[in-house]
Amino acid sequence: MPMVFTSATLYISPNKYSQIPKIMKKIVFAATFFLINSLLVLGNEIPDVNIRIANYKDDKVSALSYTFDDGMKEHYTLAVPQLEKYGFRGTFWIIGSTINEDSQHITDTTHMTWEELRIMAEKGHEIASHTWSHQNLVKITREEAVKEIEKNDSIILEKVGLIPISLCYPYNAKNDEIIALASKNRVGTRLFEFAIGTESTIESLNKKLKEIIDNREWAVAMIHGINYGYDAFPDPNVLWNNFEKVKALDNQIWVGTFSQVASYIAERDNIQLNTVKEQGKVTVTPQLSLDKNLFKEPLTAIIETTGVQSFEIQQGGKKITPKVLSDKVIFDFDPFGGDIQITYK
Description:
This protein is an alpha/beta fold. It has helices at about 5-10, 15-20, 20-45, 75-85, 115-120, 140-160, 175-185, 200-215, 235-250, 260-270, and strands spanning about 50-55, 60-70, 90-95, 125-130, 165, 190, 195, 220-225, 255, 270-280, 280-285, 300-305, 310-315, 320, 325, 330-335, 340-345. The chain folds into three domains: about 5-45; about 50-55 and about 270-345, Immunoglobulin-like; about 60-250, Glycoside hydrolase/deacetylase (TIM Barrel, Alpha-Beta Barrel), CATH 3.20.20.
């Protein structure tokens, strides 16, 4: 039978106390102090507050990036409006030598203009590299491969105003040497993909979405032509239906650009969280050795706890508004932003 302490248990009458030897009085006093303090501590335990990084943004189950190869005109006129209809942003792999200078100087009606690419970038779409002239990098010399990569980076910087931080290999051809060359100063390169195009059906794409969720994975969709060109759709509504279906799964699938998801995963896998817990307060110090000029994606933290009614979170003196759910609290933070102060009650 467990021992139960009450006020009667700890009470000693004055008559009895005066009869206790001096040494025993000290022992009784110490024991009484210890028992009372223990009862107070047990009544005010520090809640078990555990913090971890979510696998994907907003603690989604999986992630999906829509990527479009070759800078086709239809990507701008058809795909971009459909993506934006659902709040999505895509990644567009550009072959610099095929892009038209502007609407007054069209040399290839099947490809976009630099002006259109600038507009897309301003709207949050990712303009990324598919090399200067789409040569198989494995079949040319190292010097030629470097030129293909660097020339395309330079023209995109000049015309769009940004250096692409991801790259897609022409013909998906790559080896260790080419991957090392292409990965310099980037958050990632496209090493895996699944095609959406000529052979896709609504049923096959629905099946793929189920696999993505079941496997809790990041999937990278590779799309070329819409109505014309390589791997074009017999019916583009297959793609638009997929966008609608993914939007309906918004609570499970994070749709991000290639660089956004690649950055998140690299940060997630390399960050260390040093945590100091006190009564009513937790201080978290994130440590990340990646290049902060390249890796800029906020991370989602998850607080798992019981018995806490409210949270206040700050980083760098700025308040962070958390999302309080039934079984956890989530919030986004800057992995390079310094200490995170979490107070709770």
